[in-house]
């Protein structure tokens, strides 16, 4: 099979990044604000400076970590038909944007603080949208109890979609509560370890620091068999050096340090190598999704992950990241850069429905982004180059100067080989032409949002399971 892929590192570059990463992991090492995590690494051979809460991770421990990494992974869903298996050879699995702090109100269009009712609607829409393979809690439920917010978001997700849910936890206590909640849905912790219906994103503090609550949550998830995505979020020139080489080495070091904690906690624990690193707007310091540097860092990070045999999540897709209300707020160059992330060596990606550099979200934007992603992902479809596809006998039959329009071979393989949307899809896609007005585009998307919310009913949970979930929520909320 032939697949469109972007790589930027030569073999020598990959070896150089790895070598510099080993240097960084030993000196200065990684600051880890957890005695529990430091002890695990010490048992694995790391040198520990307890006064500075710093681990110097030697090459031997890195090799042992990489040896234990799982080479294949399954992220499961309530509906087994929606399970995701990595590595993925064609286009990546796609998710929504995550944990935005405001929503563009679907009725008034005004920007307001997001609530649990908004997340519930987003989950229903995400459940209905076929181009979405898994979901993040796209907005934050600000009306949920603060100390149990991520737990309530997980409950909303598990109740309102049968797709895989990817959240986060900020402490070991939160992690244990989430494991307990999901175990109630699948029939116990052993069943959850076999079929992890949720996973978590845990972000290092760039540069080279693992925060206490987050890293101790990683330990809990590793022991429970819950996949952990170690998402480095370096900003060139701010939290990492301005050079792409140095930033790539920091991304690599942060991922390997997190992996070491997971593998020392539970050998073979499922982990995902991840980067959402990019350049900032150097005039304001604000993160800039869609920057060219994001694509280069994503490509380099994905290559390093594949060099180690790790599952990977880099880059993303979203056309509303430059605005605060639904629409396409991305210039032609950024559109190309954003689309290209699907051609990096990544298994998972995200970003659907995001606004305002991921600070906001919109239900209409979910629809718009899904429509566009459905087209753009075709860049990464498998293209067969086996003997049958060369069709030499057919070429000889038609001969020089002939045509193939009336040949049975053409009609038989037309839809397999070419991107041919249905008539209804063509009408949808035509509304996104750049010379069309944003208002028309958003109004059409809003109609579809309302139709989904009025007609789509996610597969419900059993009433006994809902009672168990309610008990867990009450236990960890009071």
Description of the structure:
The mean pLDDT is 91. This protein folds into two domains: 67-380, TIM Barrel, CATH 3.20.20.480; 387-417, no CATH class. It contains 18 helices and 18 strands. The chain is of the alpha/beta class. The strands form four sheets. The chain has an eight-stranded parallel β-sheet with strand order 6-16-15-14-13-11-10-9. It has a four-stranded mixed β-sheet with strand order 2-3-1-12. The radius of gyration is 23 Å and the shape is globular.
Low-confidence parts, pLDDT < 50 over ≥5 residues?
none
End-to-end span in angstroms? Answer: 55 Å
> How many H/I helices?
18
User: Judging by the overall fold, what is the CATH architecture of the largest domain?
Assistant: Alpha-Beta Barrel
CATH fourth-tier homologous superfamily of the largest domain: Trimethylamine methyltransferase-like
Largest sheet: 8 strands, parallel
Tally of strands: 18
How helix-rich are the residues, as a percent range?
40-55%
- What is the total number of structural domains? 2
Spatial order of strands in the largest sheet: 6-16-15-14-13-11-10-9
Structural class by SSE content: alpha/beta
CATH topology of the largest domain: TIM Barrel
Radius of gyration: 23 Å
What proportion of the residues form beta strands (DSSP E)? 5-15%
CATH class (first level) name of the largest domain: Alpha Beta
Q: Residue-averaged pLDDT, rounded?
A: 91
Task: Give the overall shape, derived from the CA principal axes.
Answer: globular
